Predict the 3D structure of the following.
Amino acid sequence: MTVISPGSPPRAARRAPRRVPPALLVPAALTALLALAPIGYLVVRASEGGAATVLRVLARPRTLELAVRSLGLAAVVTVLCVVVGVSLAWLVVRTDLPGRRLFGVLAALPLAVPSYVAAYTWVAAFPGLPAASGFGGSVLVLTLCSYPYVYLPVAAALGRMDPAMEEVALSLGRSRMSVVLRRLRPAAAVGGLLVAMYVLAEFGAVSIMRFDVFTTQIHTSYRASFDRTPAAVLGLLLVLITLLIVVAEARTRGRAAYAGRGAPARRPAVVRLRAKPLAVAWAGGIAALAVGFPLVSIGYWLAEGASARLRPGELIEAVTATLAVSAAGAAVTTALAVPVGVIAARYRGRTAAFLEQCTYAGHSLPGIVIALSLVFFAVRYAEPLYQRAPLLVIAYAVLFLPAAVGSVRASVLQSPPVLEEVARSLGRTPLRAICQVTLPLAFPGVLAGAALVFLTAMKELPATLLLRPTGMDTLATRLWTETGSGSYAAAAPYAALLMLLAAIPGFLLGRRATREDA
Amino acid sequence: MRLVVDGVDKSFGGTRVLDRCSLVVAEGELAAVLGPSGCGKTTLLRVIAGFERADAGTVTIGGREVTGLPPERRGVGIVPQEAALFPHLSVARNVGFGLPRGSRDRIEECLDLVGLAGLGDRMPHELSGGQQQRVALARALAPRPGVVLLDEPFNALDRALRAAVREQVREALGRAGATAVLVTHDQEEALSMADTVAVMREGRIVQQDTPAAVYSAPGDLGVATFVGEAVVLKAHATGGAASCALGDLPRRPGGRDGPGHVAVRPEQLVLSDPGGRPGEPHGRVERVEFYGHDAAVTVELDTGDTVRVRTGGDVRHRPGDRVAVGVRGTVLFFPG
């Protein structure tokens, strides 16, 4: 018997269609417009005073000072995060550290601690101490909160590394470290750049630590003066710096994906540690400072507050307001994300790619800048919306659209396009095919994405501060206000609730990271 | 219903994938489109189904031209390579997807047709690969489509299963009286299943005929070597014979004279001890491949050409032996 082509090559990939149906295109275009609007309007507002004003603001010595502070903070925190993240990842994934699995879960847990909550716990425990305020305090808190952004990708890369490469290097006389570190560079770089982005956008922690950077100056400027143009200029400057980092991160992410493709056939060799107590002390120390200390501090202040007068009414109000506005934010964001996500998953071509990229505008931009721009817009054109909940929900939508679009896209990709084709061959129009086949299959993933947006919105601080209706407080704003006025005991319940809420995704992420290499 | 594809062109970017492609399938026939990977057969199916729009040419089903219609209005059923059952629906709801509500009887009938009666309440992930493929067929047949298209439907199954599922699918299509087009690169599949075989190459159908005719009377050298094995030798034809390294061999009457190639089927070659018949070419056995019930012997002729001969499993010759190679029957000659 004969076979025509033994080992025939795989089938050519189905070509995704280019033309996006109007039913999807129109809502997606509106969403993209909404995502781009804040930055667009910021440019308009900042240039209103003319080039002279812009240059005047930029040339102020204060501006240079803020730049040095913001960038300096970002640089120091990034370096420290890389050191902590890489060392922990190495210890958990590649060595025989006792209690590895526990440390693996603990290592990702700081994601559960919002940075301003951590700042509160340190300030409340050691008020006035130089290490716990100003630059030092900010570095400490931000490093402990952000190192998981380096730890997670590096741990994943280590787990996927092919041991054959290390063995070849050893056989050629090179050290194991040199090969491993070189392979880790892309993952560490991606994590490091993410850290830099978040530090630049950071507001809550640095303002509690009373360390002035761009974001806090924008907030003060907005509050204090009639003429808010300088705030707009500073906002734009911050956006520009952030965009440079975003571009660098996107480039490095591409290379990182290349380096770690596919799962190796064998598990890498486990390295025997020589100074086990030292390693345990290091891993345990980080976990204690990042997770243990905040819990202890909150516990202490909760106890303090229990003996003093507790104001349950305020607490319940804040909880209700937080739940309501976050739920609204999650619903609106997910609804806006569905058409864009479906397009990103099912269609290719310039239109599809452009729409998707637009919605990522809010990905890295500081919440305060987006809020500022929306304030400008509302004051000028949409007076009734100013200081009303809908504006806050819109801000949430712009901020969290990237996460929602990403999760819709991933869910729709789970449902192969051939199913839609079969549905069409059986008589369904394209839209009904999507509704009856693709969306039901994508629903669990979309729901998970909405849940993530819900949880993230509950922790949001800067945009909420700027845009909330007068008299409304969320858990985050209450914490910030009470900490600012030194009422640490009163702030404790809010801190505790926020930690609880944020713990859920952090815990799940940590479990998945260790399960991958288990 | 009768399917007529006439002169279809299709290009992607700058590449021409379908080139004046034409195919005719009579009502109730099972046609196999046979061709190597990349020849455009999947694109042809997608044009018939309506997922790609042809640049030129027409598609007619049951006398009605469907070229400009979207897939949902053509009445074409598809059975994809990976079955593609809707994972969130039961087997019965999968089969009934193209039917109006409350068509229990028709669903039962179709499940019975493919030999899966009573499995309506199962979920797709509870079925084996072969069963999923049959449910996909039932689903495509349920709304009584004009044409059913099958895209390499047995590729995802392992070899042992393939023959059995092939037979079941063929029977089901026969009982339903459906007009079907099956796309495959496996010539065994095409020859054994189909009523008519269309050989496809570089976007064109180069020959369409019954399986036996395509095998015994291929239109050109390409078809001769693609469908079945062939020993190809340079030759020169005059009258009723073609001269080549294997001697002067009788060829089909009515062909052109002149230089060209002969294609000899391996089962036409006979090995015997040297010196048997006068004029027979001699050679040396290079290699013997034993397959159990048959064997293949590679012989290097004295002229320098190498031929591969099929024999029964009880082959006596060993590498190094001298043999005579004879040819039974007429050979195929292709000029040029």
Remarks:
- The two ends of chain B are 40 Å apart (CA to CA).
- The first strand of chain B starts at residue 3 and ends at 12.
- The interface with chain A takes residues 12, 36-38, 42, 49-51, 70-74, 76-78, 80-82, 84, 86-88, 97-98, 139-140, 143, 152, 185-188, 226, 228-229 of chain B (CB under 8 Å).
